[in-house]
Design brief:
155 residues
């Protein structure tokens, strides 16, 4: 009976921690997510540039002083977006750039991160929606051409 009670308490504590982390992730602003994504990619680009081995989520969390749940969430999105790739290491999973570091600039990371998920634009009938979409595309082109859009390896 004591063992079962201990197991139930342990299970409850783990679920509270997971639920708390889940709630925190849901409340992260998109702006904050993009900044952390840039921070993570910058760290990986720097490590790749000098030939260091790919870090784990725990290592990134420690180096960047960002909670591991947040790091794992952003890493998942960066892999889904095609910016990073997950590899197997001695410690478990690790992450590295999924393309040459000469192609990873600020706007590429941000735009790729923003495009995660389903795009239902083709079903939109609103003329205003399509005008907004066209204007957004022009703004993105302007951002890409900006002198402030630098390669992360150069920061």
């Amino acid at each position: 009976f004591v063992v079962l009670l201990g197991a139930e308490i342990s299970y409850a504590v783990q679920n509270v921690k997971l639920k708390g982390a889940s709630m925190q992730l849901q409340n992260l602003s998109i702006s904050y997510q993009k900044k952390i994504a840039l921070l993570i990619v910058k760290e990986l680009v720097d490590r790749f540039k000098v030939g260091e081995k790919a870090p784990s989520p725990d290592q990134l969390s420690s180096v960047l002083a960002v909670p591991v749940f947040t790091v794992e969430y952003i890493l998942h999105n960066l892999v889904t977006s095609g910016i990073l790739s997950e590899i197997k290491s001695d410690e478990g999973k690790a992450f590295q750039p999924a393309m040459g570091i000469d192609k990873i600039d600020l706007v590429k990371v941000i735009n790729s991160y923003e495009l995660i998920g389903n795009d239902l634009s083709k079903f939109m009938k609103s003329k205003t929606y399509h005008v907004l979409e066209e204007k957004m595309s022009k703004v993105q082109a302007f951002q890409s051409a900006s002198e402030d859009n630098v390669l992360l390896k150069e920061l």
